[in-house]
Amino acid sequence: MSTTAAPSSEPETPIAPPAAAAPPGAPAARRRSIGPLVLRLHFYAGVLIAPFLVVAALTGLAFVFTPQLDSLVYAHELRVDAGGAPARPLAEQVVAARAAHPDGDLASVLPPVAATDTTKVVFNLPHLREKQHTVYVDPYTNEVRGTLTTWFGETPLMTWLDDLHRNLHLGVVGRHYSELAASWLWVVVLGGLFLWLRRQGTGRRGLRRTVLPDLAANVGVRRTRSWHAATGVWLAIGLLALSATGLTWSRYAGGNFDIVQNGLDAHSPTLETALPGAAPAHGVDSGGHHGGGTTTGGFDPTDVDRAALIAREAGVDGKVIISPPAGPGTAWVVAQDDPSWPYGWDRVAVDPAAGSVVARSDFADWPLLAQLSKLGVAFHMGFLFGIVNQILLAALAVGLLCVTVWGYRMWWQRRPTRADRRAPLGAPPGRGAWRQTHPLVMIVVLLIAVAVGWALPALGVTLGAFLVIDLVLGVVQRRRARRVIPTSPAPVRS
């Protein structure tokens, strides 16, 4: 995906066969093409947005292997030796956790999945807001292994790296950087693909030149461009997926995505938790969290074991979150929370006293858009396919860094080096590229740009700002050019 425009001293592969020579005296035909416009957009997007993409790639690369880092940093809290004795009842483990953590409301219980996992008992505290305290209990001895402040199940280390990737620890202001990177990433990728594919021929030779770098090219911009573009082709699908999934939970574009989901009624369904004959109660969202908060009273602690058993009999097993009733007349909720393949996000509302499931919501019954959004987030975070997903994301991050470095290297390689034309960097593509585009095509492009700018405000605002600044600079340059044009000397009479 080339980000260059200035002419090179090396021979270039022609984009298209030269047109036939016009007859003497005939006006030159004006060739219409959207290529120069895409080249100019790709060049400036690459130069100006690449720093944001580099930061996103580096912070994403740091986050992607947090499950392995957690296993090292929090080994005492997360892991135990698998004992020969059977696991103790969950109710006893909850009592042990409460004794070690007397404050807060019981929010949920996460039973161990593997024999070496601890049980996680989660408490809500008002001063923590979105965060919670998680107490880790040895399921064989009821020993409390430690307490950590968690955020939606993430350890402190994972939370810190997550915040670094999302907002650079700058809060709401920092989220603009990640949204800007995700908003422009797909533009840079598609623009680069367009520019590279139109340079290549058809057939087997053209395919080879598209997907493999030109190792026969001399050292210089031509070889750098081949590495830049061929690598970009291999990364394209993955980078487009990261751009789309990142935008769905960004601040502004994500808000517009929610509007679309609301309009299409495509959100994940709410699980009704009211017991039969009881007054209406709050439902539970797709994450298994009650809408009305949790309490410590109103239920028997031994109900957690009965709720888990009923849910397993109903097919809701594996990695689950067991939440106590939100209030009188409401049910326990057991929700799968396993993003790894084969994923599991089914939920049931359980009445332990009656030994029955009072409501159910299966992931297979969710609207398609809600399913794709949930799967996309799991892929973006590296959870969907386990270690394979992590390696793929790491490869995408490293590849994006390489493509960016090669893009800047091309910009430097194309700088004028003659004694009378030295410059620190290559010249950008020429102005007036829109004049070479067919008017009807330009109208379509403008309409698409307006629609995309509304859906992706970070892209729309920055693109509009670039166009205004570019227009002003163009006017200033033209005025300066008029001032320095020398006047013709008057003829000398002999």
Question: Describe it for me?
Answer:
The chain has 494 residues and is α+β, with helices and mostly antiparallel strands. 48% of the residues lie in helices and 9% in strands. It is built from 14 helices and eight strands. It has helices at 35-64, 66-73, 75-78, 90-100, 156-167, 171-197, 203-211, 221-248, 252-264, 303-313, 368-380, 387-413, 439-455, 457-484, and strands at residues 105-110, 119-124, 132-137, 144-150, 320-323, 332-336, 347-351, 356-361. The strands form two sheets. The chain has a four-stranded antiparallel sheet. Strands 5-6-7-8 form a four-stranded antiparallel sheet. Helix 6 crosses helix 8 (221-248), helix 8 (221-248) packs across helix 11 and helix 8 (221-248) crosses helix 12 (387-413). The longest helix is centred in the N-terminal third of the chain and has 30 residues, at 35-64. Residues 1-22 and 290-296 have low confidence and may be disordered.
Q: Helices, strands, pairings?
A:
Elements: H1 35-64, H2 66-73, H3 75-78, H4 90-100, E1 105-110, E2 119-124, E3 132-137, E4 144-150, H5 156-167, H6 171-197, H7 203-211, H8 221-248, H9 252-264, H10 303-313, E5 320-323, E6 332-336, E7 347-351, E8 356-361, H11 368-380, H12 387-413, H13 439-455, H14 457-484
Antiparallel strand pairs: 1-2, 2-3, 3-4, 5-6, 6-7, 7-8
Helix pairs in contact: 1-5, 1-6, 1-12, 5-6, 6-8, 8-11, 8-12, 13-14
Number of helices: 14
Quote the distance from N terminus to C terminus: 61 Å
Computed CA radius of gyration, to the nearest angstrom: 30 Å
Report the portion of residues in β strands: 5-15%
Helix content: 40-55%
Largest sheet: 4 strands, antiparallel
Q: Sketch the topology as an H/E string, one letter per element.
A: HHHHEEEEHHHHHHEEEEHHHH
Care to count the β-strands?
8
Q: Strand pairing plus helix content: what structural class?
A: alpha+beta
What characteristic shape results from the CA principal axes?
Answer: elongated
